[in-house]
Amino acid sequence: MRNRPIYLDNQATTPCDPRVIAAMLPWFTEFFGNPHSAEHVMGQQAEAAVEAARAEVAALIGADVREIVFTSGATESNNIAIKGAARFAARMGDPRKRIITIATEHKCVLESVADLADDGFEPVVLPVGRDGLLDPEVLRDALAAPTLLVSVMAVNNEIGVIQDIHALAAIAREAGALFHTDAAQATGKIALDVAGIDLLSISGHKLYGPKGVGALYVRRRPRVRIAPLFSGGGQERGLRSGTLPTPLIVGLGEACLLAAAEMAADTVRIGALRDRMLTGLNAAIPGITINGSVGARIAGNLNLTFPGADAIGLMAAMPELCVSTGSACSSAEVEPSYVLRALGLSDDQAGRTLRVGIGRFTSAAEIDAAVALFARAHATVTRPEP
Q1: Residue 69 CB-half CA count within 13 A
Q2: What is the pTM of this model?
């Protein structure tokens, strides 16, 4: 008998890899120096550990170490990238006011773009297709007006679809606009290369690292200029003041190192588990539909609409299984997912939809047990035919 639930919500967060925890522990206890106290040996040790982690983050995405700025997570990185780029441009007298994003972005991007309207910018939110992907020609048309910044997430947090960010970045570059991507759900899951990208956001807890740490890639050549959001001691090249959390940064670096070594094998194994689950669910519950592109999708994501059962009811009927109705940032909301609405789903369809996230530590036995739980729960809570 299991002592804990089956965890299939790896888009919300991932468990911290034990190897990451082992790498972090000494920096909580024995090596606790402030990395900014360069005058003594303990500060120097911490500073060296931070810089080693910076190199590991940079290597995973093909960046220069000087292009990595540590933050508290992707929400902060996204805010710094979007608001910082806009506000710096405004201070320099740049006349461009258009900021473009897409309807399925994470809330922190949508809200950051919307907040800039108060500063005189023009937020533009583009639609996506039923597959969740942005049509490059839709972006090209939107760029007909002078545009400062385009922000398109690499992998969607709810439906797992992979945007062709390099093609989209090239279109933005042709129009003279900066290109930012929220890569929180992509880093460590798909190969990333920052060539042609100006700004990129990373979150530690989405790739088996600790919560509370992330990074922002800021291109150096040609240099991207952004205004800091925090006032303080000028750490992180003046872009993000505050004492760096050495243990968390060490953990992020170790998570990136492990991802670089194991991502390809993880993708194959996780993809096989996803296919196993989908085969089992289709046999047990005919009529399930997958939301978003099937081909352009990370290995571990299934966003499923069930034929006759309410999502909340399904979850209540299988408390031993951890899945979700959508973004962890919006899960307390009663209203249907705005991401699913953007794909054209009705409120009823969205209300019958669950997100399944398979990860590095998911086993085949757990997948089989989850299929059985879904089948039993669906039979229990299926709505009667009218």
Answers
A1: 27
A2: 0.96
